[in-house]
Amino acid sequence: MLTTVAAGPYTVRGVSIGGVYTSLAIPELSLVFDAGIAPRSAGGIDTILLSHGHADHIGALPALLGIRGLHGKTKPPRVVMPVEIVDDLQAALGALSKLQRWPLDIEAIGMAPGDEIELRGDLRVRAVRTFHPVPSLAYIIVRRVSKLRPEFRGLPGPEIAARRLAGEPMLDHEERLELAYATDTLVSVLDHAPDLLKARVLIMECTFLDTRKTLEAARAGCHVHLDEVIERAEKFENEHVVLMHLSQLYRPDEIAGILDRRVPPALRSRIIPFVPKTGHWPG
Ligand SMILES: [Zn+2]
Ligand SMILES: [Zn+2]
User: Fold this and answer.
1) Nearest alpha-carbon partner for 176 in 148, 140, 149, 204
2) Cβ–Cβ under 8 Å, residues 23 and 38
3) Distance, CA 57 to ligand 1 centroid (Å)?
4) How far is ligand 1, taken at its centre, from the CA of residue 161, in Å?
């Protein structure tokens, strides 16, 4: 039922079919993006990031919360989402909690474009504006790395400690854009937030791939068409680009061939289509 791909140091595991359901877990970061389906294995992850409130992205959130109970999770998960949808989602979960006679509690965190919050340790999430008919966000996972400044390297440990105690600024801080997730948006998100193109791994929607859906029709629904990815082929600096939210207009076993024919080789070699190997979409 689940598709698993390796993108550099990260595993992307879940299900994604445009308009049907999308939920992708990144076990190494202990994160789940979206909850359009509730895979059993995602129930053990404590941070869920929701791109927007469409049913194919949040429809299975109550089921995912229920599964957590089976994993012995008693603490509510942290659920990050566009700030505009926090009240409506809490109201919906409140109604479902009454039906369940069981609290479907979450720690809701609303974010606006440009906001950044700490996830854990050196890991942070930055929200990016996306372009869809409802409030929506992309997310960039940023790792803050601190390094001893070159001039202090090689000094004996006690001297480093003494200088640090004396308040000398000894560390350089750098940010690594580890992974980005952008779905359900006009492609212009890439022009407005070029950091997406610099993340080590970019997971992005590419709902439509050829003339079975015109570029105009794709844009009218605020979705990305492969034509628009090809137009920007030279801008992608990512080590890996996972294309997901693919439409069921395409059979899983024809998608790699379409990409081979259409995408310039320098980008194609870095693209991983998120499709099942079975030749059939799950469900
Ligand atoms: Zn969608
Ligand atoms: Zn949507």
Assistant:
1) 140
2) yes
3) 6
4) 52
246 Cα: distance to centroid of ligand 2 (angstroms)? 13
Distance 21 CA to ligand 1 centre (A): 7
Give the pLDDT of the chain (283 residues) as one tens digit per residue.
999 999 999 999 999 999 999 999 999 999 999 999 999 999 999 999 999 999 999 999 999 999 998 888 889 999 999 999 999 999 999 999 999 999 999 999 999 999 999 999 899 999 999 999 999 999 999 999 988 888 888 899 899 989 989 988 888 889 999 999 999 999 999 999 999 999 999 999 999 999 999 999 999 999 999 999 999 999 999 999 999 999 999 999 999 999 999 999 999 999 999 999 998 999 9
Measured in angstroms, how far is the CA atom of residue 132 from the centroid of ligand 2?
7
* Nearest ligand to residue 22 Cα: 1
C-alpha of residue 82 to centroid of ligand 2, in Å: 13
- Residue 275 CA to ligand 1 center (angstroms) comes to 16
| Strands laid side by side in the 31-33 sheet | 3-7, 10-17, 21-26, 31-33, 47-49, 78-82, 107-111
